[in-house]
Amino acid sequence: MIADGVEDEEKWLAAGIAGLQQNAFYMHRALDSNNLRDALKYSAQMLSELRTSRLSPHKYYALYMRAFDELRKLEMFFKEETRRGCSIVDLYELVQHAGNILPRLYLLCTVGSVYIKSKEAPAKDVLKDLVEMCRGIQHPVRGLFLRSYLAQVSRDKLPDIGSEYEGDADTVVDAVEFVLQNFTEMNKLWVRMQHQGPAREKEKREKERSELRDLVGKNLHVLSQIEGIDLDMYKDTVLPRVLEQVVNCKDEIAQYYLMDCIIQVFPDEYHLQTLDVLLGAFPQLQAAVDIKTVLSRLMERLSNYAASSADVLPEFLQVEAFAKLNNAIGKVIEAQPDMPILGVITLYSSLLTFTLHVHPDRLDYADQVLGACVKKLSGKGKLEDNKETKQIVALLSSPLDKYNDIVTTLKLSNYPRVLEYLDTETNKVMATVIIQSIMKNKTRISTADRVEALFELIKGLIKDLDGDAHDEVDEDDFKEEQNSVARLIQLLHNDDPEEMFKIICTVRKHILGGGPKRLPFTIPPLVFSSLKLVRQLQGQEENPFGEEESTTPKKIFQLLNQTVESLSIIPAPELALQLYLQCAEAANDCDLEPVAYEFFTQAYILYEEEISDSRAQITAIHLIIGTLQRMHVFGVENRDTLTHKATGYSAKLLRKPDQCRAVYACSHLFWVDDQDNVKDGERVLLCLKRALRIANAAQQMSNAARGSTGSVTLFVEILNKYLYFFEKGNPQINVAAIQSLLELVTTEMQSDSSTPDPAADAFFASTLRYIEFQKQKGGAVGEKYEPIKA
User: Fold this and answer.
1) Which of 4, 43, 240, 391 is the most buried (most CB within 10 A)?
2) In the predicted model, what is the mean pLDDT of residues 76-83?
3) What is the Cα–Cα distance from 147 to 88, expressed in whole angstroms?
4) Can you say whether residue 678 is alpha, beta or left, with left for phi > 0 and alpha for psi between -120 and 50 degrees?
5) Rounded to the nearest 10 degrees, how much is the dihedral formed by the CA atoms of 367, 371, 374, 379?
6) DSSP state, 166?
């Protein structure tokens, strides 16, 4: 059915164009032979094709444009006729004898254009006559195109200031009156289209109307181009008349489009000075009009105007723009109780952007906008709609973008209250935006109160919100979120130890509720921030001012002990053990033996009770040995206890090669270069001999299981340890021991049962080269190495 209609329209258009072209042909012949009577006859017949009611606006436009081109040629002919002595007044009378009204009016407008140019009559009289005459066409489509033609031919002939048609009798008021009258009549025709035809074709009519809207809007564009319209005339005449037409037409399509046109075509300074009048129209519009978009565009234009130059800002203060816009938005929302939440948020988001541009120093205004938004959201619960939450994120992001400083944003008391209306996912998005802003601007957050406020804002990332605990979370996203929180914790700093300790306690309070998945990400940065503070206080005497409350390393270590303990409960024993060892090292630097011993004890308990994976045990034992070797704070008894435990753990590892490596690593616990009280040569030798026995056992097991003794790498590694302690002057490590070990490695490598291992061969060759190098170097070390036969 629709296809048939389209085909019929195509036929009617083709027929119309054919008739138009045929009459245009005869008209051209008449023009060429200067035959005025025939020219008028055929032009009237040509224009009769525009009388059709069968075409849609789109198709009618195609026909109109062809007629328009022909009328241009006819206008040129009329000009020539007047030059040849034909009276323009007679011509103006003559065209009015055309049989049909539509061709008659097109011809009248064409001659009228020439009449004004001739200046034989005041432009205002001719224009008034033409605009009145056009009332004869009341068919919406035909009337709109006719008046559009009138606007087109007259736009360069208006009696504007500086125009050649401005005279004593003609003023800019007449030009304005003409355009306003044409606009009013066109709008009436355009609105009337909505009420013609059956209800089922409503959508089709609305589509057709939207195709024609620019014909009406062009009048407003022409008005905005009239030089003579100053602010007073705009305020007293133009805007009230246009708004009267917009409000009274009671048509939602027209109201939306024309309000948008007014905002787009007239200058920003005019909008600013007429805010009262313009905003007063909004509550009077139909309920279905998309006011939020139009008002948002107005605020956007005013924001850009304010940003364009600092010189215009006093104008905004003078007219109290913020108060007027805020008031208008309140009235619009009141007038439309069914306005969706999205509309409300969009309006307040635009108002906030405007406020931040115009009054960046007035935080109370920004807070007022957020407060009004909270009021409208109250009782709505969490927002689930994607568009609504996006708009809230835009609303909350604008202060961050403007101030580039979360500290300023934290002063907005209603900011966190708006955040509460976001669902869990969007809450996380907003928290990430806040953290990114801090990172980007390197914002310094240096008081516990601000940290408290900040962590309230980003709680979506640091703890499970209501109903969030069992949601499926993408692992990579989760890691990225938690890493950003970790980076944030590292940024928090204050040079005053007391305040820094308060910050640490505040962060700890917030992150400990984060649950087992988050703590491994958030506790390490907190521990390192605390250790940084410990090093800042290092060497400080206990309570230097005799104050009970003052921050001391011991006090921080107590807090650290409890903090790391929460990791071992999760459980994350490997991480907890590493952190205990870090704390022990810091306690060592502060000469706090009991504290360091306690941290080692906790690490050992974790090793014994929680770490069962063999690889994790290897990593842990080497960390323990490495840390213990650097400790200088322990007395003999405590050191012996811890060292004995470490060597015991080493010997109990599952694989023989791992046992061997851990045991020879323990030898360093008995010989520390910069500690004279830790140089026990005998126990070093015992460790190395024990490592040799384990290496032998490993070879025998390999022979029994695989039929080959395996690699000699372990022996070469032990040989290197012997050489290290030999150089350091350990009296128990002598040339004979090294010589026998060299022979052992050589024999093993030549044995038929050993497995070829290029890496071990290269390692041994390198060791032999080192011995030779030391011999050649001479001096005391060279003398020591001389007896060794490599």
Assistant:
1) 43
2) 92
3) 22
4) beta
5) 160
6) -
Of residues 451, 467, 465, 460, the one with CA closest to residue 433 = 460
710 vs 757: CA distance, rounded Å: 9
> pLDDT value at position 779?
83
DSSP string, 343-409: HHHHHHHHHHHHHHHH-TT-HHHHHHHHHHHHHHHTTS-SB--HHHHHHHHHHHHHHHHHH--HHHH
Using only C-alpha atoms, what is the Rg of the chain? 46
- How far is 419 from 428, CA to CA, in rounded Å? 10
> Closest Cα to residue 583, out of 533, 620, 543, 640?
533
How far apart are alpha carbons 642 and 283 in whole angstroms? 81
> Quick check: helix, strand or coil at residue 671?
strand
Strand partners, 710: 754
Per-residue burial over 130-155, b = 16 or more CB atoms within 10 Å of its CB, e = otherwise: bbebbeebebbbbbbbbbbbbbbbbe
Q: What's the pLDDT tens digit per position in 327-362?
A: 999 988 888 888 889 989 999 999 999 999 999 999
pLDDT in tens, 355-405: 999 999 999 999 999 999 999 888 888 888 889 999 999 999 999 998 888
Mean pLDDT of the chain: 90
Q: How far apart are CA 232 and CA 447, in angstroms?
A: 54
Three-class SS state of 37: helix
What DSSP character marks residue 754?
B
Sign of CA dihedral 179, 183, 185, 186: positive
As a whole number of angstroms, the distance between CA 218 and CA 264 comes to: 12
Phi, psi (5° rounding) for residue 671?
A: -145, 100
Answer whether residue 749 shows pLDDT above 90: no
For 772, the token pair is: 């030779």
Do 105 and 112 form a contact (C-beta atoms < 8 A)?
Answer: no
Let me know: does 694 contact 652? Beta carbons within 8 Å.
no
One-letter amino acid for residue 174 of the chain: D
Question: How many Å is the maximal CA-CA distance in the chain?
Answer: 137
Contact 143, 134 (CB under 8 A): yes
Burial class (CB in 10 A: 0-12, 13-18, 19+), 433: middle
Q: What are phi and psi of 111, to 5 degrees?
A: -70, -40
Cis bond before residue 571 (omega within 30° of 0): yes
Across 184-212, average pLDDT? 89
Any idea which residue has 């952007």 for tokens?
353
| Dihedral of the alpha carbons of 626, 628, 630, 633, in degrees to the nearest 10 | 170
Neighbouring C-beta atoms of residue 553, cutoff 10 Å: 26
Residue pair 684/733 in contact (Cβ under 8 Å)? The answer is yes
Q: How many whole angstroms separate alpha carbon 514 and alpha carbon 518?
A: 6
Please count the other Cβ atoms lying within 10 Å of the Cβ belonging to residue 9: 16
CA angle 61/65/68 to nearest 5° reads: 135
Decide: helix, strand or coil at residue 679: strand
List the one residue out of 217, 218, 284, 215 whose CA is nearest residue 257: 217
Which of 688, 683, 680, 706 is closest to 744 using CA atoms? 688
C-beta neighbour count of 723 within 10 angstroms: 19
Q: What is the DSSP letter of 422?
A: B
Encode pLDDT of 544-596 as tens digits: 444 556 789 999 999 999 999 988 778 889 999 999 999 999 999 999 999 99
* Sheet strands (E) in 380-443: none
Are the beta carbons of 625 and 669 closer than 8 angstroms? yes
Distance CA 351, CA 369 (A): 7
Specify the residue for token string 């290092």: 538
User: Among candidates 197, 181, 218, which has minimal Cα distance to 56?
Assistant: 197
**CA 346 – CA 120 distance, rounded (Å):** 56
Which tokens hold the place of 326? 């805020």
Structure tokens at 711: 């690699």
The three-state DSSP-derived secondary structure of 83-111 is HCCCCHHHHHHHHHHCCCHHHHHHHHHHH
Classify residue 540 by its DSSP letter: P
User: 253: helix, coil or strand?
Assistant: helix
